[in-house]
Amino acid sequence: MQPIALQIGSFAIRWYGVMAAVGFLLGSWVLFKNKKAAGLNDDTCSGVLLTAMIAGIAGARIFYVVQFFDHYRNNLISIIRIDQGGLVFYGGFILAVISIAVYCKIHKIDFIRLLDFFTPAIAIAHACGRVGCFLNCCCYGRPSDSIFAVTYPAGSEAQLRYPGAAVTPIQLIEAGENIIAFFIFYQLVRKTKRGVATSCYFISYGVLRFINEYWRGDNPKIWGLLTPAQLIGAVLVPAGIAALIWFSKHDAKKD
């Protein structure tokens, strides 16, 4: 695991940024491939993607900085160094959804159906991001004696927190889950009613993230019980179930 992909003098390109870029490109390709079914043309598709990218990065970074503000208290300039890692998916997801909703309202686009076609794009982009987390040595797991456990380089955050310990490669597990989700939702969105894919994504990701958090070694717990991601997942799952029931009964629109 080496966070630096390429370094020339003091200029460095980190694997985290490379994988984030790859994820964005793959997610964009998926959305462009389905643009007609999603009710988009080239211009609106580009506008939605740009809106989602800016809002997603901003929200993910804000959520991370708030959660780990002690790391930045004495070095505020590092808050903008997103190339070094430090993004929280839920933060980016929430702000991106809000921003896309506003964009759809302005441009008279079916917001729910657009979210449906975003689900496979989000999944494949998230998978790439998690590989970037693994290479960047962030978002690591708890100490483990499993044969699949990995030992991070000396000086990495995982080694500073768990000296000499091997930890669960939870980032790669989540990447694998998201790759599977990509294939499932790529097919699901083409065969189901409006809103069903989005609802199923909320449910599945909320459940998986809630479980995965038990293997995360970096996230703090609120009142010693649940991590912030688990609390959000605890809301996301019932909300997704309620939405799935509603769309299944009240909206018969298909492409």
Rg over C-alpha atoms, rounded to the nearest angstrom: 19 Å
Largest sheet: 2 strands, antiparallel
- The coarse silhouette is globular
The low-pLDDT segments are none
Give the mean pLDDT.
Answer: 86
Q: What is the topology, as strand order, of the major beta sheet?
A: 1-2
Count helical runs.
8
Fraction in beta strands = under 5%
Could you write a compact summary of the structure shown?
This protein has 255 residues and is mostly helical. Helices cover 62% and strands 4% of the residues. It has one domain.
3D structure, described in words:
With 255 residues, the protein is mainly α. The protein has one domain (4-193). It contains eight helices and two strands; from the N terminus they run ββαααααααα. The chain has helices at residues 15-33, 42-67, 89-107, 111-136, 157-161, 170-191, 196-212, 228-250; strands at residues 4-8, 11-14. The chain has a two-stranded antiparallel ribbon with strand order 1-2. α1 runs antiparallel to α4 (111-136), α4 (111-136) runs parallel beside α7 (196-212) and α7 packs antiparallel against α8 (228-250). The radius of gyration is 19 Å and the shape is globular.
Task: Please give a handful of descriptors for the protein shown.
two-stranded antiparallel sheet; mainly alpha; 255 residues; 2 strands
Topology:
Blueprint: E1 4-8, E2 11-14, H1 15-33, H2 42-67, H3 89-107, H4 111-136, H5 157-161, H6 170-191, H7 196-212, H8 228-250
Antiparallel strand pairs: 1-2
